[in-house]
Amino acid sequence: FSNDTPREYLCNLGPDGRRRDADDRPELCRGTVEFIATKEFLVREPMPAVYFFLVDVSMNAIQTGATAAACSAISQSLSDLPEGPRTMVGIATFDSTIHFYSLKRAQQQPLMLIVPDIQDVYTPLQMDLILPVSECRDSLEQLLESIPSMFENNRVADSAFGAAMKAGFLAMKPTGGKLLVFQSVLPSVGTGSLSARETEGRSNISSGDKEAHKLLQPVDKTLKTMALEFAEYQVCVDVFLTTQSYTDVASISVVPSTTGGRVYYYFPFSALSDPAKLFNDLRWNITRPQGLEAVMRVRCSQGLQVQDYSGNFCKRVPTDIDLPAIDSDKTIMVSFKHDDKFQENSECGFQCALLYTTVYGQRRIRVINISLPCTSMLSNLFRCADLEAQFTYVVKQAANGIPSSSLSQVRDQVTSTCINILQSYRQYCASVSSSGQLILPEALKLLPLYTLGMISSI
Fold it and tell me: Which Pfam families match (predicted)?
């Protein structure tokens, strides 16, 4: 694809053959540049920064102190939310039913609205469930202080985790945003309910069952289907598991991994030591550099093509990945394949373009460019190899394979990868050396050590 260069962008060349303004234009002298997105990149007005909190108030959560720890962490984090009228907040609690709260300033105290139907959930109000934090902060702080005592005699042990997430999503559907869920027990009722697989897993492992790895797979597709809908409407889910018992993390984690979020796991949860960690994790989740409703595309030179992406995202079209939220702690791994030959000393270009909205409502495009030399000599390839990048790829591939393969198969695959790399070096780059001598490429000399360390931890 090519287009005409605007006349005002043209510039005279200097005696060195470069544009005279090359150092004054970031897009010509920097590998990473951000552009403010124009109207053609806006499907709708930039979304506000919405934070909706879901807190488990079931009997177990109350008795272990998880509810009190969650409420305290949220209350302390309110001052760290992005400043401005566009920052909005809402809250709901849940056990076997879902409790929304109207936080209008005109009310003397927050109004509780109960949703008893956990099979076909709904929001009890179209408005007043999510408000600008500047308008409802006092009411929200009062509510957070009251929730542990409001439910201190609760004897409901069930948890409608899936239904509560669905209800929170319905409240956030017009805007998108971040759904932060504090969960303490295995979801047992309503949409997305799960059954305990812990006993089955222990018996399978002790008997050497080759199918034991299937316990690391989601139990069904209910939560996955729900997560795809969340991602479509730009809702990112982060789950804080403050638990003292089995919660089926494999099934629950599908929602964060599909929506660009993550799971925070506190097991066994201690009311003495974990509240401080919970607060620090929540505060960093809110304050770290991040963007919302993001779309990413990676491009490369002709003769190369993107083979696969790996990370926490939703992929609805072949060329792009959707990220309801992206932050400084997230990594997206991209693998390429080549289907053409490259000339020696030529270069291949790679570009990553990320369209996102800042928490202050500005739509931006972050463009990362890199150009790398091509070579037809394996010795050059091994000399310039990046051990950390290569091994990160191996680790991620192994992690992705664990739910679908036995651990012995994963270990064998990791070992084979290491052997194949070193065998290729020996065969094509060091064939004149004695066959009994161990020859390692300088850039990858620690690869066997890294591989052994990884195998011993699988």
Answer: Sec23_BS, Sec23_helical, Sec23_trunk
Q: How many whole angstroms separate alpha carbon 4 and alpha carbon 457?
A: 55
How far, in Å, CA of 293 to CA of 363, rounded?
10
Which residues in 29-84 belong to E strands, given as ranges? 32-36, 49-56
How many CA atoms within 13 Å lie on the side-chain side of 279? 17
Residue 23 lies in a domain: no
Is 172 a domain residue?
Answer: yes
89 and 225 part of one domain: yes
User: Could you tell me where the beta strands, DSSP code E, fall in 164-256?
Assistant: 177-183, 235-242
Q: Residue 198: its pLDDT value, please? A: 65
Cα separation, 122 vs 433, whole angstroms: 72
The pLDDT confidence band at residue 283, using thresholds 50, 70 and 90, is: very high
* Residue 12 maps to a domain: no
Checking DSSP bridges between strand 235-242 and strand 290-300, what pairing results, if any?
unpaired
Parallel, antiparallel or unpaired: strands 235-242 and 263-266: parallel
pLDDT at 255 > cutoff 80: yes
pLDDT of residue 206: 52
Residue with tokens 């469930």: 129
Boundary residue ending a domain (327, 346, 375): 375
* 122 close to 116: Cβ distance less than 8 angstroms: no
**Which residue type sits at 287?**
T
Average pLDDT over residues 181-204: 82
- How many residues appear in the chain? 458
Domain that holds residue 368: 31-46+289-375
